[in-house]
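Listing S7. Sequence submitted for prediction.
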Amino acid sequence: MGYAQELRRILGGFSNYALSLSIICILAGGITSFHVGFCAVGGAAAGFIWPAWTLVSLCVALAMGQVASAFPTAGGLYHWAAILGGRFWGYLVGWLNLAGLVTVLAAINVGTVRFAGTLAGTQAEHPLVQAAIVAAITLSQAAINHMGIRATRFLVDFSGWWIVGVSIAIVLVVAALAPSLSIGRVFTWSNLSGQPAEAPVWPASESVPWLALMAVLLPAYTITGFDASAHASEETIDAAREVPKAMVRSVVVSGIAGWIMLSIVAASIEDPRLVAEAGEGAFMRALELAAGRPASVAIGWAAVAAQYLCGLATVTAASRMAWAFARDGGLPWSTILAKVSKRTRAPAACVWLVATVSVLFTIWTPIYATIASICAILLYLSYVVPLVLAARALGREWTALGPFHMGAWFKPAAIVSAAGCAGLVVIGVQPPNDQAMFALAGLGAMLMACWWVVASKTFSGPPRIGAPDAGRLVVIRTREAAIKREDPGP
């Protein structure tokens, strides 16, 4: 793809899959955002809304898989957009994706702090206290990533198994201990807007269809981050085959496991309003009513561990994306940010950059639901724009497909992806998350200004498709020879 191999290519197919599975992490978004769906329409958020959006996410993952198979680089989405649509689209998607990854890291760690506070029976009510705790968590995740992909790989592989194991434990414990279970509760539409009364998750509304749309934020926020597999392409063996499979598998496993886990919890809820009155503590109240305090707290702390590893994996993906973008001159101070540690072969400067900016974002808006809305919109926009460009270029500018492709189904999948993303943009800026609209508008205006004033003249984009020219080939070989001398190995 026209680059020197600077990162260590040591990830197998499972590790790449575990990276995306860890960032999706149904024990993070599925639990910490449970109230976003349940306090809108009750059990139907699990029974109907979750599987419906899972199918949209699957279309996105399948279509992204085809493009990732053809262009397996750490830049992922911005790289695809630049090749298939031009430098402007590459620059736009790069910033959307990086902003999405940084804000999803913020959402994960704020959600972890809030959820742990629920378990401990106390919350960090002052925004700066919450920010300080989030900072400590985020910087510890950055410190582990600074050590390199070998340390990260071990924890991410463990995370993949941990998520599945804890999810199964929730299902078994609720099934065994709940006073009653009714599948009908999973498919019952309940208007729970206006709850809790002192700080409603959603403003009171008489329109259940409208509330059903708001509930989409539960699965839409949770099933994001599977682009991480693409960002780890240059560290993955046989990336053209393994990366697409990892993205699709992570969405399928998360979608099915999340559906089962949330459905069994919803099936145990005898009094939906009592659970909705707990607000952001709705999941833990439902679990405690079903399984009792000791079991629910033990499961809750196991979920906190998964949420921490989710944030750790997000730092990995975000730092690779930032590094790849800087390598092509897409960021300020790109020369510094594009450097890789000689000792660990990790993009150390980018690791600390994404961690720092993520913490600063939580100071600007400490509200979890708003952060989740912003990151979901940014990520899905960054997913869909390259897919629209790819659908337009397929068979014309883009003819060389990778080993993973959908054949005639690619364009329909891209259309479904685009339609789902358009709906998400509308849903994600509704009150009480209307602050998201100002954040997105401000980011858009800033990017347009930066493009016309500076980036249109300085951003070269990724190398052209095809074999590198003689001059670039010499640069690549020289750099790879230097890397071999610098790299201490295992």
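Caption to Listing S7: primary sequence and predicted structure tokens for the chain studied. The chain has a mean pLDDT of 90. The first helix runs from residue 13 to 32.
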